[in-house]
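Attaching the record inline, Q. Sequence:
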Amino acid sequence: MPAVGSYLYGFTHRGFEPGPDLRGLAGAPVRALPFGELAAVVSPHPVKPLMPLRSNLEPHHRVVRHVSDQAALVPAAFGHIVESDNDILGVLRANYRDIGDALGRLSGKAEMGLKLSWTVPNIFDHLVRHDRSLRAVRDQVFKGGRQPSLDERLEVGAAFEAALGRERDRLSRTLLAALDAITCDVASTPPRSETVVYHGALLVDRAHVQEFATRLHAAAGLFDATLTLDYSGPWPPYSFVRLRLQPAVAA
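Structure, as predicted:
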């Protein structure tokens, strides 16, 4: 039978109390483990490999959201289990200043997901109509209806990628500029498909979450009907945790 260890949800300030009704993985009670002016949010859990199943992910994110709504929290990624509270205290001791700095940076902040996408049936045709240099390459290569060589097709492909990058950059700058006044930080991620213009997360003050929605609605008017704008949140600021925790050292 596996030994019972501690599951980590994140780090907060000393003095935060999760409350007796808050339950984590496997329905275990959640508590704060203090060290100095900081605390780790933990619950008891068997020390064993943890699968990213819904039954495990849901309580992890529920606890993180609950704590983030009430206190500053540096959320931990899913799946951190250690053998004992002493291991958690060792991590707090070894990373005390960095955790404190991260808490100060993320205090009162929330993450808002943001995505701008094209809704056109063919992105190549759309860019050909709007990008003169891509249109010139396409017309030259396919002039007279002839079959282009492999090198010519590669040339068209490179021109398409360049035009796609330029348009993404232009539209992304327009979008982020419209939200700059209430944005504390930006974490952009590479688009996963050709029709995605921008995908990322913005860090905003929780007090400005409603204003974010209002400004985003106004920003949508900057784009034509070929684009759609979606957002999600507020979320705990997962994308803005940049801690590189050092291993615990002997006391």
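The first strand starts at residue 4 and ends at 13. The first helix runs from residue 54 to 70.

More tomorrow.
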